[in-house]
Structures are given as structure tokens and as C-alpha cells.
């Protein structure tokens, strides 16, 4: 399977154009999955924690085209293809893959070095990353150059951060910290409010805030039948405090 992870959004032609390139370059009937197209806009740092959490369900032989690239077209941003535990990732070297690499046991990194002068600088997802990924999957690695993973942007970022990295469609706030690192009797302090842990939404009253470990294994702040983002005045990048 090929997973798509971007901040392109679900409106407009961009996702469709990515899929068209993947289809045109495919030698097999690869299944393309829209994993996420509302990753935090222009924020590869927050997106890195989401991608690492979601990638835990990937299997050997899968691939992921990931593009959150505010520096698109810049000469200072290296295009890369990374194999981490037999899963292939392709996209910009701007920190987006740093947490994926940190949690992997086996890593091989390639820089994409050919064709940069002949493509448009504004849509590298379509014109650079998608073709490069398919070339690799089709066993054509002529246009790639190996490098050591320790030179990746963000490779020394912390494994967990006490920071809001994403809001889902319900207004729940996902934090870049694994739930297993937080004691169940700990609470989160927000604007002077103590947000306690609960296992399920039904365990708290309507409009009551709580935190829990979500399906990705990350801490999530929610409000029963309401939006935590609105009710608690939260935003991406906001630092939260744990009682522990």
C-alpha cells in the first residue's frame, strides 16, 4: 500500500494530481490510501509526531508519500527517500521524518539528486516526490545518493512534547506525548482548569473536559459532546502542563 500524508486539504486538485502521478508510474496495482490531508499547515514539526504515531500500523513493503513542505522550492531543503524498517518514505528533509527514523531499528536514507532543475518549484509533491517514490518502488535507484540518517533535520528532537499538535474534526486536541508516559492519576492544567483522565467519553458528564490515550497512543484532550478547541480556547503549538 501507498499512504498519502499531506497538509494539502481535501479541496482542490492537489491530492488528485498526486494520485494521477502514482498511477501513471505504477507497474503494479498499488492501493493508495488517503491517510491524512489535513496535517497541521506549514508545520512539519507537529506533523512529524502525527506521522510517527500513525506509521506504527504500517507493514513491511508499504510506502508513504508525505508532504508538509513550507520550504518548497528552496535550495536549502533536501528531498529525501528513507527506508525505515522496510517501509519507504518520500518527501522533504525538514523534520517530517525525524520521529519515524528515531523509532526505527533499521534505516537507509537517500537524497534525491536528479531532475531538480527541470521541474516546477511550487509542486514538488507531484513533480518530484511522487515520481521519485515510484522510481524506487519500480527498482530504479539510479537517481538517489545515500547519506547518514544522523544528518536529517530534527533527528535530535525529543520523543515526546507537551504541546498540542493537531485538532480532529470534533475539536479534540492531540498532544505529541505518548499516553504510556503519563500516570493515570495525573491531570493537565489549562487556563487554571484541572483536566483529569477518563477512559471513555461516557465516563464524564456532558461538556466536561478530560484527557485519555487515543487510538494512536497519544494523549488527547476532549470534551464530552463538545469541542475542546473552542470550549478551552486551545491552539496548535500551545504548551500544556502535566501535574506529574
Automatic annotation (TrEMBL):
<dbReference type="InterPro" id="IPR023228">
    <property type="entry name" value="SAM_OH_AdoTrfase_N_sf"/>
</dbReference>
<feature type="domain" description="S-adenosyl-l-methionine hydroxide adenosyltransferase C-terminal">
    <location>
        <begin position="163"/>
        <end position="240"/>
    </location>
</feature>
<feature type="domain" description="S-adenosyl-l-methionine hydroxide adenosyltransferase N-terminal">
    <location>
        <begin position="2"/>
        <end position="138"/>
    </location>
</feature>
<keyword id="KW-0949">S-adenosyl-L-methionine</keyword>
<dbReference type="Pfam" id="PF20257">
    <property type="entry name" value="SAM_HAT_C"/>
</dbReference>
<protein>
    <recommendedName>
        <fullName>Adenosyl-chloride synthase</fullName>
    </recommendedName>
</protein>
<comment type="similarity">
    <text>Belongs to the SAM hydrolase / SAM-dependent halogenase family.</text>
</comment>
<dbReference type="Pfam" id="PF01887">
    <property type="entry name" value="SAM_HAT_N"/>
</dbReference>
<dbReference type="InterPro" id="IPR023227">
    <property type="entry name" value="SAM_OH_AdoTrfase_C_sf"/>
</dbReference>
<dbReference type="InterPro" id="IPR046470">
    <property type="entry name" value="SAM_HAT_C"/>
</dbReference>
<dbReference type="InterPro" id="IPR046469">
    <property type="entry name" value="SAM_HAT_N"/>
</dbReference>
<dbReference type="InterPro" id="IPR002747">
    <property type="entry name" value="SAM_OH_AdoTrfase"/>
</dbReference>
Amino acid at each position: 500500500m501507498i499512504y498519502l500524508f499531506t497538509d494539502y486539504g481535501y479541496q482542490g486538485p492537489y491530492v488528485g494530481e498526486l494520485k494521477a502521478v502514482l498511477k501513471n508510474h505504477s507497474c503494479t496495482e498499488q492501493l493508495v490510501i488517503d491517510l491524512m490531508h489535513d496535517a497541521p499547515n506549514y508545520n512539519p514539526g507537529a506533523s512529524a509526531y502525527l506521522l510517527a504515531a500513525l506509521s506504527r500500523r504500517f507493514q513491511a513493503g508499504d510506502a508513504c508519500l508525505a508532504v508538509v513542505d513550507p520550504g518548497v522550492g528552496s535550495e536549502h531543503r533536501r528531498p529525501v527517500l528513507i527506508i525505515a524498517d522496510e517501509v519507504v518514505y518520500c518527501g522533504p528533509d525538514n523534520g517530517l521524518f525525524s520521529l519515524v527514523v528515531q523509532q526505527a531499528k533499521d534505516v537507509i536514507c537517500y537524497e534525491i539528486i536528479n531532475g531538480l532543475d527541470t521541474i516546477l518549484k511550487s509542486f514538488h509533491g507531484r513533480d518530484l516526490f511522487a515520481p521519485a517514490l515510484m522510481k524506487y518502488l519500480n527498482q530504479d535507484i539510479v537517481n538517489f545518493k545515500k547519506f547518514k540518517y544522523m544528518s536529517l533535520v530534527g533527528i535530535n528532537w525529543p520523543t515526546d512534547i507537551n504541546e498540542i499538535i493537531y485538532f480532529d474534526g470534533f475539536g479534540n486536541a492531540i498532544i505529541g506525548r505518548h499516553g504510556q508516559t503519563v500516570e493515570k492519576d495525573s491531570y493537565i492544567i489549562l487556563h487554571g482548569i484541572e483536566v483529569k483522565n477518563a477512559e471513555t467519553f461516557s465516563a464524564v458528564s456532558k461538556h466536561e473536559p478530560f484527557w485519555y490515550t487515543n487510538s494512536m497512543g497519544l494523549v488527547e484532550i476532549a470534551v464530552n459532546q463538545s469541542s475542546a478547541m473552542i470550549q478551552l480556547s486551545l491552539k496548535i503549538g500551545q504548551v500544556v502542563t502535566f501535574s506529574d
